[in-house]
Amino acid sequence: MASPRQTKTGPGAARPRPAPRPASLPGRLGATGGRLRRWLWPGPAAQAAPEASETAPAEFERYVLATRFGQLDETLKLANYSAVTHVIVAAAVLVFFWGEASASYLIGLFVVVTTTSCIAVAAAWAHRRQHSESMSDADIALGYRVSNLIAVALGAAWGTMPIALFSSSDSDHRMLVVAIAAGLIADAYVIGPILSVALVFTVPLVAGSFLGLARSGELIGAHLAILLTVYAAFVLFSVRRMSHLSYQRILDRVRVSDQNETIGLLLHEFEESTSDWLWETDRAGCFNHVSPRVAQVAGRTVEALQGSPFAAFLAGGADRALGAGGPEVLALIRGRTAFRDHVVELPRGEETRWWQLSGKPAYDKAGRFTGFRGVGSDITASRKSEDRIAFLASYDPLTGLANRALFQDRATSECARAAVSGTSCALLYLDLDGFKVVNDTFGHGVGDQLLRSVAARLQPLNGEGVWIFRLGGDEFAVLQRCNGTAEAIALAERLIALVSASYLIDAVKAEIGVSVGIALTPQNAEDPESLLRKADLALYRAKAKGKGSFYVFENELEVTQRARRELEADIKLAIERNELALHYQPLTSLRDGRVVCFEALLRWNNPARGSVSPVEFIPVAEATGMIVAIGRYVLRQACREAARWPRHIRVAVNISPIQFRTTGFVEDIAAALASTGLDPDRLEIEITESVFLDKTAITMTNLNELRGMGIRIALDDFGTGYSSLSYLAKFPVDKIKIDRSFVRDINSSDESLAVIEAILAIAQKLSISVTAEGVETAEQARILKARNCSDIQGYILSPARPAGEIFDIIDRIPQDFARLLPAEAPRIWASPVRAVGA
């Protein structure tokens, strides 16, 4: 069994040698001696049960063995002093009673006591020689037995003294006998850590003293015997208590030793497995107990750090200055003030590191300051992450420009400054012209590089009262301290010239422009939100002027915007209140004058506004997304009406590009056809050329699915905008509608006539029918008929009329056509309208 100082717990704990353990001394008393066993051995025996309930059996057994060894160790250490005392007392008895008692007894007592004491000294010496070695349970049991034998021998030897000397001595020597007996009984305190040793020594001594005093035949002897016995009982009970306390003290010492070693192992593992490390200084603020982990983070050896100032550790060297946070930590240490999670910056050449330190002052048992102890961790990685997060919170990661959050802060401060300084601050709201085309054509990678290039051109303007921001997408903002509109306009012109220059990105030449909306504070707005809103209104007007334009906010823009918001609200109510209605304009065949199709045209009659033109409300509906709901209504209503017409007459419905690109568009058409029973080949979808420019997957899918369903596709307003013949070949349509702008001048403009002839020739080659819009005169109709135009549409035959007039129009148009073009009209068709529409 190891000594208490060697007893370990944890992975490295020393285990007792696997020698079989003999029954302990208390165990050998047997079941009938249970009470005596609990009285004699209050430590191991009395506490075994509760300890076993709290500690693993093997661990508890080790604690008991270590504690019993500690008690034996303390008893044998005191044996030297006790042995010397016994020899001195034996010599004194020999001298004091020489001539008063038998010389042979006195010499015999001296020899026995001296011999036994020498044996005790030898046993203690032998134990000390084995103190640094592991001792088994058998070794400890042997030590207990030897100690008990020595004690019983001494007790028996001294127990004969009162019997042999008290009766034959005078009163003075009798008092000396009683005093010596009482003093020897007190020796139980010295050998008390092991209660059994004190007991086997004291009981023979008390028994002999009682007999010696009681058999003297005198009353005083009997009184002394009783008092001596009471005194001995008190000593034994006191020794029992001391033995219990000794056991608990030694057990606690063993546990503390184990805990210290466990804590040491855990702290070592803690330093090895985490980025944290422990530090400790002495009273002078110099390192004490430097761990390898501390040396590692400092980039020095343990020996070099040991005893060095903590201040030099924070600075990275004795000749270096402290970084941010270092002086504060040293001030707290000098003030003996605990601190927690204090961040210290440590410049290390080109790299900067950050440590987070916590510490508190340490004091000894007497309350004297002994230094500081604490924990540190390298938080460089987390600090860099925090800095990156902070950067992203205020700056745009793509361009490095300040973002919308910083714009809000700066705009707020500039508005407040302008309000009291008498100067102005202009907000220039920038939107790139043509960026979407570059992004869609060459990909987002080129688009991102283009944005970075634009930011690089704007970045040099930062400073001197000018701040550049990226608000998102292709929108930028510039705040400028100025003295009025003229300075803001000058900067806008400079920005337009700067941004509009061509870009070369990955061998791609990109051409873009920029539109600028300008608003000033305090002239136009006094807070950031209003300033941005008014600059946005000005930007909207600038873009309407054309690319590369700027516009300064005027109050009428706000009036226009307010009217637009009111119109948006009225459109929403119109949808909910079914205020929208359809009128139908006929398309007439130039071959025979019959109506072949009706185009459904949306009308809105508002109770307050009266009749509202589609030119006014359709763009607003498209901008707000309400066009999708309106488009569904038009499809359902047009199909429902067309189902009542003669089967040779189709219905044409204009579809907004925004509605055409929605994922549920084809399903909406299928639902309208299914609910009304209209044949798909009687529905004609009119789209503009802008649909073909948007070559997204959903656009192409919708086009192919519509043609697959048998629905006819008509290209409206052909000849305007981005007319191209390539998409006519890739996506063949069923009809082309010539825009009214060409038809209007057909009889007065050779250019218009040439365009129409070209369109008709192409359509004939591709087998595509052609409808001419806006025909208003018979001369225009004759020119178109002569050049094989398929159909005409216009006021010459009928404006758009309500659904209730459809059948009358079908009957009337052939007659009107015959009057307009009498030579070309073969005959008046008999209309089957009444029968079909019945």
Automatic annotation (TrEMBL):
Transmembrane segments: 78-99, 105-126, 146-167, 197-214, 220-239
PROSITE patterns given in the database record: EAL, GGDEF, PAC
SUPFAM superfamilies associated with the record: EAL domain-like (SSF141868), Nucleotide cyclase (SSF55073), PYP-like sensor domain (PAS domain) (SSF55785)
Domain GGDEF as annotated: residue spans: 423-555
Domain EAL: 564-814
UniProt KW keywords: Membrane, Transmembrane, Transmembrane helix
Renumbered residue ranges of the record's region Disordered: 1-28
Protein name as catalogued: EAL domain-containing protein
Organism this protein belongs to: Methylobacterium planeticum
